[in-house]
Amino acid sequence: MRAAECRVEDLAAIVAEETRLQDYPLAERVEANVLVYSAESLRRADREVALAEVSRALGEGPGVLIIEGAVDPVVVDRASDVFRGIIDEQNAAGRSVGDHFAKPGSNDRIWNSLEKLAITAPDVFIDYHGNDIVDLVSTAWLGPAYQMTAQVNVVNPGGAAQVPHRDYHLGFMSAEQIEPYPDHVHALSPALTLQGAIAHGDTPLETGPTMLLPHSQKYPGGYLIAGREDFADFTTTHCVQVPFAKGDAIFFNPALIHGAGTNRTQDVRRMVNLLQVSSAFGRAMESVDRERMVLAIYPEMLDRARRMGDDPGSEVALRSAAEGYAFPTNLDRDPPVGGLAPPSQADVVRTSLAERRGVDELRAALKDHATRRETS
Predict the structure, then answer these.
(1) What local confidence, expressed as pLDDT, does residue 173 receive?
(2) pTM for this entry
(3) pLDDT digit string, tens, across residues 172-202
(4) Which residue in 70, 184, 276, 291 has the most C-beta neighbors within 10 A?
(5) Pairwise CA distance, residues 350 & 329, whole Å
(6) Do 224 and 170 contact (CB within 8 A), yes or no?
């Protein structure tokens, strides 16, 4: 697939599909083409039946579902108090928290809210993340042994809408970076992650709940349309929004085109806790000390660069030795710079090689890079 071959008409035909309530017996209703469930109904249902229906809804269906009453509002309030304290500490310290898709300063973010909640308030963590509905949906899409991460996002009054987009993994790359990945990876990427969010307050339409384009996860070229004005115009116009109540949860296929809406209020700080749940299988078989490998081969790479200029063999060898992917990382210390993702370990090596830095300079750069990725 190539970005130049993507046509708005093809996406329009796919998202014209109607979500039919009769196809999803456990759902309460369809609202704006989005499936809406009751948490209590899912809890009463046979678990295997519920798992199958949720998986089908996220894949073959509209790709998005809302579960009303997923988290006890009392528990949500306790977590909100902790999160507000963390945000106040960040602001008091003058820390600027970056954002992938929003202008700096328009949002308040807590990166890695999962770990920060556990460290700050273990009792709240257990009550909040020990949630059977989140477990049900995560298991339905990813199977057992999934890996949870979370990030609090607060859209302040006047915060502008995002351009609708796809997310992690391929969605965090430019079209030029994505094109070399074969078509089957475009199809596989959504199966590696589940997107979710828990509402930490009532979220009527004027506060800008998530913009959603139901069924858009079925469009094969959806990762390649970033930056295309024709697609941005179409998705912004055709996305739908559904209001939330405190404790409601939304889950969607990561290939679903979506974006935060504009907060048109003057006094409501719209808080949600974003959930990024990953497959247990997104890991290599063996533990490898890649920094040690890189430092071992770098003198030879540097010697070849000085003698011959750019050496294709060195670049290919680097791909086998270094970590070529920027995530996971600590986005407080290692924010995206000039793109959607921070530099990878391989990028650090490439920069050092291009500038003909010595081994000790590379060692210091790699140590700084590794330190920025630590959570404490």
Answers:
(1) 87
(2) 0.86
(3) 888 999 999 999 999 999 999 999 999 999 9
(4) 70
(5) 19
(6) no
Q: Once rounded to an integer, what is the mean pLDDT over residues 312-338?
A: 85
Per the structure, the complete domain to which residue 366 belongs is given by 290-373
Question: Residue 231 to residues 13, 169, 283: CA-CA distances in angstroms?
Answer: 13, 20, 34
Q: Which two structure tokens, joined as six digits, stand for 39?
A: 């948490």
Distance CA 221, CA 315 (A): 29
**Spatial distance between the Cα atoms of 133 and 39, rounded to a whole number of angstroms:** 7
Show which of 247, 278, 309 is a domain's final residue: 278
Q: Per-residue DSSP letters for 170-187?
A: GGGS-HHHHTTS-HHHHH
Which of 246, 278, 310 is the last residue in one of the domains? 278
Which whole number is the average pLDDT over 6-19? 98
Write the DSSP assignment of 248-285 as a string of letters.
-EEEE-TTSEEEPPP---SS--EEEEEEEEE-TT-S-S
